[in-house]
C-alpha cells in the first residue's frame, strides 16, 4: 500500500490550514536506520505518542503512562493512525477544536534496530512481525536505549491493543518522566513553555 493511502486517515482528520502538523514529507534523519520518536501530548488526556518508522510511515501508538525502563512494567499502547515520517520533528500547539488539540513536545527520538526472528532464529521483516502481533527492536535514543517489544492482544472491548515492554535487564537513566516537567530533546522546552510560546521554535 502506498504511503498516500496509508496517510488517508491521518490527513482526513486534520485541517492543514489551521494546524502546523506536517501533511507529509520525509523524516529529518540521515536515511540510514529506521527512526523512532516519543512525543508527549497534552491533549484532552495527557499521554505519550510512541512512533516507529516502518517503510515510509510512522506506525503510532498512544501510551497513556509512557514507555518504561523496568521490564516488570507492561505499558498499554493503543494503536492510532499512521503518521508521515516528518512528524518526528513536530513540536508545537495543535489549535483547540482540531483533532488532538493541545501541546506536543519531542521527548525522545533516534534510530532503532529491528530484532524480530521466527522460531528458527531467522530474521523476520519488521512490518510482517507487526502484522503477526509481536515485534522486538532495540532503541538508540537520547533517553531510551535498549531492547523493547510490542505485543498485540484483544482488549475487553474486543478492540486490538498492544503492550510495550522493556526486554532484558532494566534500563538506566531517565525512565518515565513527569510529563509536565519533561523537556524536549529538540528545543529543551517544557510543555508549558511551548504553550506559552504559541508553539513557535
UniProtKB/TrEMBL annotation:
Alphabetical list of Pfam families matching this protein: LigD_N
Annotated DNA ligase D 3'-phosphoesterase domain residues: 39-152
InterPro entries assigned to the protein according to its UniProt record, in alphabetical order: LigD_PE_domain
Alphabetically ordered keywords of this record: Ligase
Keyword match Ligase: yes
Stretches with biased composition (Basic and acidic residues): 1-21, 71-86
Identification of the protein by name: DNA ligase D, 3'-phosphoesterase domain-containing protein
